[in-house]
Amino acid sequence: MGLPRADWAWIGEKTTEAFESPSEVRRITANSEIFKYFYDLVRENRRTGANEFVSGLTARAGSGSGLTDEELVFNFAGILAGGNETTRYTLAALTLELARHPDQWRRIAEGEVDPSVATEEGLRWSVPGMHVMRTATEAVRVGDAEVAPGERVVTWIGSANRDPEVFDAPDVFDVGRTGNRHVSFGAGRHVCLGSRLARLEITAYLRALRGMVTSVELNGPPRYNGSNFTWGLNELPAVLS
Ligand code: HEM
């Protein structure tokens, strides 16, 4: 996003706090600080035009068909949040499962399963974005439920990813699973903007691990965050040999 290097640590920590702080006040404060940061960036960039990413979007905003300042700020915050938490949770969850299932690790290490295939199982299994919500614009039936206009519907992605009608042995972690139709990136109009980048990162991680490491072992209890939205491991004491 072309943000100054000096701001990276601060903005990364603020994003984690905005989603995962146990204190509601700190979550709200962190969100406000992030919005103010991006609002200042948009205004500053109007003057200097120095940030290419912001300039690209503000140019579209100015064309009459694009985004308002408020929408720009929300989108910046969304891209930041989407990119910051999620991918690292899949990497950590994959590492944990590979430590728990040395047989699965060997399948990757010995070349039986390509890292890009194992990436999909890591995504199905880890579910860093736990749910998405939509508001019904018209009456609709979902399964056995009638949904009235204006009612909200939440889909729990972890549940969908273990749907026995879609996945064989859904509770089995199988790095070689094929036809892996998980919905970890959501679906439809708001499907994850960063899914290609995330897949690239996770596959690169597995390739690096395969090249550098013979075994993955835990040496302490995994510790998860307390969020029901962006959920994942905060701590994973492990030995990579
Ligand atoms: C394992 C990694 C990731 C997972 C599991 C994930 C998950 C998701 C999910 C479930 C949604 C849909 C939200 C909805 O339908 O309401 C979404 C949207 C989005 N993601 Fe990701 N994401 C990941 C990585 C990333 C990365 C790396 C970026 C950015 C660099 C990113 C940026 C976004 C953005 C901007 C949206 C909103 C798209 C829209 O509303 O049109 N995500 N993501």
Overview of the molecule:
- The protein has 241 residues and is mainly alpha-helical.
- It folds into two domains: 5-84, no CATH class; 88-213, Orthogonal Bundle (Cytochrome p450).
- The protein is 51% helix and 11% strand.
- The protein contains nine helices and eight strands.
- It has helices at 8-20, 24-48, 52-62, 69-84, 86-100, 102-109, 115-126, 157-160, 195-212, and strands at 131-135, 140-142, 145-147, 152-156, 216-218, 223-224, 233-235, 238-240.
- The strands form four sheets. It has a two-stranded antiparallel sheet.
- Strand 2 (140-142) and strand 3 form a beta hairpin.
- The radius of gyration is 20 Å and the shape is globular.
- The mean pLDDT is 92.
- Residues 78-79, 82-83, 86-87, 90, 123, 128-129, 132, 184-186, 190, 192-194, 197-198 line the site of protoporphyrin IX containing FE (HEM).
List keywords for this structure.
two-stranded antiparallel sheet, binds protoporphyrin IX containing FE, Cytochrome p450, 241 residues, two-stranded antiparallel ribbon
In brief, what are we looking at here?
This protein is mostly helical and 241 residues long. It contains nine helices and eight strands. The protein has a two-stranded antiparallel ribbon. A two-stranded antiparallel sheet has the order 2-3. The chain has a two-stranded antiparallel ribbon with strand order 5-8.
